[in-house]
Request: fold
Amino acid sequence: MNFWRRPGFWIPLAIVAVWGGVVLLVHQDLMRETAFILLMAVALASSLNILLGYTGYVSFGHIVFFGLGGYTGFYLLSVQGWSLIPAALCGGLLAAVVAGLVGAAVLRLRGAYFALATIGINEAARAFVSNFGPFGGPIGLSINFSAYQKYGGAGDALWYTFIFLWIITMVILLVSYLVKNSRFGLGLMAIREDEDAAMVMGVKAPRAKNITFMISAFFPGVIGTLYFFKNGNLEPGDAFQLNMSIEMLVMVMLGGIGTILGPMAGAVGYQWLRGYLLTSPIFKNLQLAFAGAILLLIILFVPAGAIGWVRHRFRRLQRVLE
Amino acid sequence: MLDQLVASLTDGILLGFVYGVAAMGLTLIWGVMEVINLAHGPVIALGMFGTYLLFTHLGLNPYLALIPVAGMGLLLGLVIYVIAVQRVINAPPLSSLLSTFAVNMIIIGVCTAIFSTSPQNINYSLGSLSVAFLNINYSRLIGALGAILVTAGLYSFLYFTRPGKAIRAVANNRAAAELMGIPSGQMLALTFGLGTMLAAVAGGLIATFFPFTILSGSPYELKSFVICVLGGLGNPLGALLGGLILGFLEGLIPAFLPVSWVPVLEFGLFVLVLLVRPTGLLGEPSK
Reply:
């Protein structure tokens, strides 16, 4: 296990570990809320990156797994009275199963066709859930306040959720690293460069893509449950926002596609920028336009993202930043 | 029951013509440069607002207003192409998806600041035509007629004029077209302009049917995706056919199921067509 010695492995993990640790030590509600939003962005961007960065398949509607997992977990929590951890894991599992079934069909499509299909799946899922009785239809579900009592009141329940999210985020970073540095990951990157050539060379592309799609769908499902548990209610409109899906893509692009530290840096950078624009008196009304302009500049001029750019510019850092 | 069904089908199909125009813009751009224009929805919304502003502030007839709106749409498309698309045209699909989405954000952001998101309405009624039990709004009829005219215009442009033929050549094989002396860059820009022009015109026509906000473009953008895939990405006549099919379904489904099921079936069909026949109904069968 010599990768313990590699800085590319432990730098992202250490950052998240220390970050979450500090939040736990300071024990301040406002700080936890900020950290929750940021960690969630990091986790979602990193799990999308496992598919997008390594196989090059653009899942434009990845938020569908966040929504479906969230709905499943939330249903188990609020209607069936499960506790948080099994409910969240079930939410993730369902998302992974759906990804496996859908992926078996959709992953045959390439390039923009795949991207379009994922948009369609997200819209279909949103429309379906709005009509699905057990999930509350268009009104959605909300949690009974007494459900929080199990964890010692609402305040403690939120801390509990935060710790779970913190651990999941570290797991995602770990999985992302392991996939990238394995033989399996090498096959994925061969698919990204040239799928037909990879298949000729013996990469079992359909299976590899499908497994990757499932991995990258599992984590958003878990996080969806956590997020909606924290919020206390969920509606179809919140669960399947196409915009959030695109924000995830933006975070990955911003930080550096196919790297481990990149989606993390991109997620934090994007959320920080958004927060700044929303609160600054000059940009408040134009924050969306301004964010769009920045996105455009990055795509046009720094397509490798921040980490990718640094890696390209300072070759010595390539061994440190993965 | 049958009366109702016929009425709702007529309504749906007439609306389908206009959907077809919106989708034609998207499919034209895809066919020539393989770019999915995610700024399509906001341009449709801009077409609505253009018609609205010309009507309320200058008192222009909404149908006459379509002409300046079309001109503005063409110009806007050229600007978007030069700023956002040109540099990423040969990059992987993610780049052009995100760059056109960035344009989407900029348009929505600026227009929300100017117009806010409160609904607007073009207060211009032409009455309706009564045939037996049917009651058809004249605005729908004119919308469908306009859609047919636009399609005819686009086809005669693509098949009988030099720039149109050049666009088809570039779509067919960019390198070969360049060797024949066709300035492919200009043709791509022109195509993008035409695509957004069609979106703006469709927006203007829709504005005469329903109230709208600056965010109203996105449902039509999603419908356009469905329509393009139904008719075959890159095939303008297929887009019109796809539009009619979608309009027909929208008229048919509410007779059997609650209206809220319409999008489930629409997007389900969309994914199904992508899987079974990604080249669409009018496209070549996939190998």
